[in-house]
Every structure is written in structure tokens, then in C-alpha cells.
Design brief:
Layout (H helix, E strand, L loop, with lengths): L4 H31 L9 H13 L3 E6 L4 E4 L5 E4 L4 E3 L8 E9 L2 H7 L4 E3 L5 E16 L2 E5 L3 E6 L11 E10 L2 E8 L5 E8 L2 E10 L3 E8 L6 E2 L1 E4 L9 E7 L6 E3 L2 E3 L4 E3 L5 E2 L3 E10 L2 E10 L4 E4 L4 E3 L1 H9 L3
Parallel strand pairs: 6-11, 16-24
Antiparallel strand pairs: 1-5, 2-3, 3-9, 4-8, 5-7, 6-7, 7-8, 7-14, 9-13, 10-11, 10-14, 12-13, 15-21, 16-20, 17-18, 17-22, 19-20, 22-23, 23-25
Length: 337
Amino acid sequence: MIITNSNLMRTVNFLLKCLFTGLLFINLTRCDEEAKIPEGPKPDSEALIEWFNTSTNNQVQRFIINSSTGGNVTGNHGTIIKVSANAFTTLEGGAITGDIDLELIEIYDRASMLLAKKPTNGKKEDGSINTLVSGGEFYVNASQNRVPLKPKTGFTIVAPTENTGEIDQEMGKFNGVVTCNGNDCNVVWEEADEKGIDVGEFQTTGGFKTAYYVYQTKFGWTNIDRWYSDPRPKTTIFVDVPEGFDNTNCAVFITYDDEPMALAGFDQYDNNKKLFTEHYGLIPVGLKVHFILVSIIEDEIHYAIQGATITENHVEVINDVQSITEAQLIELIGDLP
């Protein structure tokens, strides 16, 4: 048989077409197989919001006092709420009589701060956000027959100093400003115009104890705080979370070693870089810290805790999370330095 150039070209073209068709079939098959690979569980944004809200509600303590006589109530951690006679009115200013319901949350540790999503992020007069060191965070509210009331003469929060260490004369009163997007709420602490804090003693069955006395004229969140201070050079830090995680379905916090009442929350997220960050750039270089990530996956808490020493333009990479119970998470945070 004589093979001409035209026959040769037709043969080569045929073989190339067969090869291309085969490769295409293989690639399509591979793509189809890859498309059928099931995706793993993803962090659930709605479940995370619900967990924070439920954890906060679980910390509420409820008391009944007489509105006409007033009285004192004492929380599980020794916080005393002192209410004078006729201290509350209706929202319209009308007088009330009879029993009222008083709600209290008292927070004296970082784990409770995290579960309530109440980190110690404070807002300065210029609008910048910086970290606070707390002497206790408190939520107080009152109602009668589920109808909200408002303070008339105010009330006093008595916070035992033994819950947070030695007396700190720099402590002042901060009010919690809460902003919500649907059920997702965040707080930032704003310094009150007046110092609003006195240090005194109160008597117990075991003797006298020292406490911060905070006079408050509004319901909601109150924080006893001072600004965190460190003379070392400052830097901005970033946190790179695992693929599929972002500011909608996980929360990232940072603790400062040897400051058990400081918990900063990463309130900024760079959508372009896919990094958590903070916008104040005041983290000291050389500071020893622990990063905490929490999320909810398939109705289970997932977390990561990583220790680090802050470097200039620090980027903390979190590669993975693991499941944990709430009790175990509280214990781990409580064991941090």
C-alpha cells in the first residue's frame, strides 16, 4: 500500500482526535467524580449566635425585692446590688408598688466573658478601641409582671475585690454600649463622665471585705475597668483562620498572659486578605498571649487555643479546630496564664 502525505495527515489527525477525546473523557469523569465528593461539615453562623445568646442567658440570676422598701440581693460570686426604697418607676415615670423582678449577671473571669461575648474592648474619646482590664462586668435589669422599669434614684453595685485580685485605684466606671444585627449583638465599653467608683468595706459573716462601689443610674451593662498599659513598642496583629471560616461563623479572641481580667475581641475582618484583625494597633511587641477561636459545627462547639509571643506585624495562623464541650472549654480558658 502506498501512503501519501494526505493519508498520513488524515491518520495523524484521527489519532490526535482520539487522544483528545480520551483525555477529555478522563477529565470529565474526574471532574464528575470530584463533584460527587461530599463536602465536610461547615461552621454554622446562626448556631454560633444562638450559642452566645444561650450562654449569656444561662448566666442570669433572678431575684425578687419589694419596690416600696428596697433591699439588697447577693449574687453567686458575692456581688451585692443595693436598691433603695422606691428606686424604680414605670418607663413613663409612674410610681410602682409591690414586688419587682431583678436580674443580675456577674462576670469575674475570661471564660464567662467569652461565653457572654463581652470582651474588654473599650472605646476612647477619639473613637479608637483599646483593651481594658476589668474589675468585674455586670448586667442589671428590673421589671414588674414582665413590664420593663427604669431607675428613679439609681442603685449601687458592690463588687468584692477578692474576685479580681488587689485593689486598683485606677479603676473607673464604663457603660456597655450594645449594637445588634438581628440577634447578633456586640458590646463596646465607654468610659462614664464621672469616675463613679469608690473603694470601701462591707461586712460578712466572716468579717469585713473590700469592694468596689459603683453607683449606676441606668440598667444594662456596667464594667469596672482601667485602660491596659504597656510601655513596649506596639504593632498590629492578624489572625488567619482555617478555610471556610470568617467573621460570620466564628469568633476570635486574645488573652494577655498574667492579665486574667483582660479579653480582647477581634472586631475587624479584612474580606480581601481573609484575615481577622484589630483596628487600634496597640498590641505590645514581645507580649505573651493566647489566641482563642470558637465556632459551632453540627451543633458542637469547636475551638482552637494557641499560645504566642507577639512579633512586629504578627500573623497568627490557625490551621484547624477540634470539638469540645462547654465545660471543657471553660476549664481550658480558666487554666490560661
